[in-house]
UniProtKB/TrEMBL annotation:
The lineage of its organism: Bacteria, Pseudomonadati, Pseudomonadota, Alphaproteobacteria, Hyphomicrobiales. CDD domains: PBP1_SBP-like (cd06327). Keywords: Amino-acid transport, Signal, Transport. PANTHER family: LEUCINE-SPECIFIC-BINDING PROTEIN, PERIPLASMIC BINDING PROTEIN OF ABC TRANSPORTER FOR NATURAL AMINO ACIDS. Gene3D superfamilies: 3.40.50.2300. This is ABC transporter substrate-binding protein. InterPro entries: BCAA_transport, Leu-bd, Peripla_BP_I. Belongs to the leucine-binding protein family. One of its GO terms (biological process) is amino acid transport. Residues 39-375 form the Leucine-binding protein domain. Residues 1-26 form the signal peptide.
Length: 411
């Protein structure tokens, strides 16, 4: 061995030893056990407004089910669920989160319906070194340009909705689009992601109009959409806004006139509220359906007994995210945020929701999504028998890779 070779070998050995030492130090730096005798999880969402059925109290119950199924304890201390209604207002949500972190010693906040709320709370949680897991909000910016080391995104995002619902309609001839868009971060992100996908497939966006959150009268917006002669009217909204837009579109005879409605974020809860007569034929994308298989049905049966309703992907996703967080705490042997965040990325997600799921470096949980069509009343054979499966969208197609997401942590 030459002098240069020996020097290189010594340098390589030193570097390897340093990496091992740093890794060992990181493992031992976190204090073992729960820091204050309890692991506390906050469910923060809309419980009284336009998204109350979308997640709401149903997500709180799903979180409680996850804790009970985990045994009610982790690291030999109790797990506690607290919850609050953020009223779809980022300032209220931030105040609640700050109170939870500073006074109530909440360890992690989850669900976070409404993208503007989720972005605000995720930003605060980065400052406070606390974990957030978003189930209810959609914007892909959460794991894109506004990603954080402690932020995770679980159930779906605007990119997955664009690939699923947007992609299927373009591929079946819906090549001209007009958007009715909720005027806040979620609507903007959803319209942008669908627009990109539509244009990549050779389609064209001929116009768009924005409406306020919780709009009651969609008539002027629908008339503009009708006048555009677009083949597809993309509803870049959710919850009661989508349901009201669909109801009022029927009054204008929009579908009968040859245009199609694309409910870009529509879940089982909204289909149930709207009814099959009005919702039939709508194509939508979800990450879960209660009648998908035996695993999904087993959870749904217990949830139904508890709430009187079948779960949608937000509620099922909340159960999954709470469970994964507790598994990470147990595996880390501590509730220290950095140690738990590392374990969350390391552990696989394999439950009735995230089958074979993985958590990317940017916090995006990657799992299969499903394209469904709402059945007609004649096709439905039982209560809550609402969907027929059109396609399974593999996770690596539904979601952006960490490298492609724009997350500064992964560039």
């Amino acid at each position: 061995m030459t002098r240069l070779s020996r020097a290189l070998a010594r340098t390589t050995a030193l570097a390897a030893g340093l990496i091992v030492a740093v890794a060992a130090q990181a493992q031992t730096a976190a204090p073992k056990g729960a820091s204050d005798g309890v692991v506390k999880i906050g469910i923060l969402n809309d419980q009284s407004g336009v998204y109350a059925d979308f997640g709401g109290r149903g997500s709180v119950e799903a979180a409680k089910m996850a804790v009970e199924d985990f045994g009610g304890k982790v690291l030999d201390v109790p797990v506690q669920i607290v919850d609050a209604d953020h009223q779809n207002k980022p300032d209220i949500a931030s105040n609640v989160a700050r109170q939870w972190y500073d006074t109530d010693r909440v360890d992690a906040i989850m669900e976070l319906t409404t993208s503007s709320v989720a972005l605000a709370v995720q930003g605060l949680s980065k400052e406070k070194r606390k974990i957030t897991i978003v189930d209810g909000a959609a914007t892909s910016d959460l794991t894109g340009k506004q990603c954080t080391p402690y932020g995770f995104h679980w159930a779906y995002d605007t990119h997955a909705l664009a690939v699923g619902t947007g992609g299927s309609l373009v591929e079946t001839g819906g090549d001209t689009w007009f958007f009715l868009t909720a005027d806040y971060a979620f609507g903007s992100a959803l319209q942008a992601d669908v627009t990109q996908y539509v244009t990549q497939k050779g389609g064209k966006v001929v116009g768009a109009v924005r409406h306020p959150l919780s709009a009651q009268d969609f008539s002027s917006f629908l008339l503009q959409a009708q006048g555009s002669n677009a083949k597809i009217i993309g509803l870049a909204n959710a919850g009661l806004d989508t349901a009201n837009a669909i109801k009022q579109a029927a009054e204008f005879g929009i579908v009968q006139g040859g245009q199609r409605l694309a409910a870009l974020l529509f879940t089982l809860a909204e289909v149930h509220g709207l009814g099959l007569k009005a919702a039939q034929g709508i194509v939508l994308t979800e990450g879960y359906y209660w009648d998908l298989d035996d695993q999904a049905r087993a959870f749904a049966k217990r949830y139904m007994a508890r709430t009187g309703k079948m779960p949608n992907m937000i509620q099922a996703g909340t159960y999954s995210s709470v469970t994964h967080y507790l598994k990470a705490v147990k595996a880390a042997g501590t509730d220290d945020t950095d140690a738990v965040a590392a374990k969350m990325r390391e552990l696989k997600v394999d439950d009735f929701f995230g089958r074979g799921g993985t958590v990317q470096a940017n916090g995006r949980m990657v799992h299969d999504m499903y394209l469904f069509q709402v059945k007609s009343p004649a096709e439905s054979k039982a209560p809550w028998d609402y969907y027929k499966l059109l396609a399974t969208i593999p996770g690596d197609k539904a979601f952006l890779s960490a490298k492609a997401s724009g997350c500064p942590l992964t560039q």
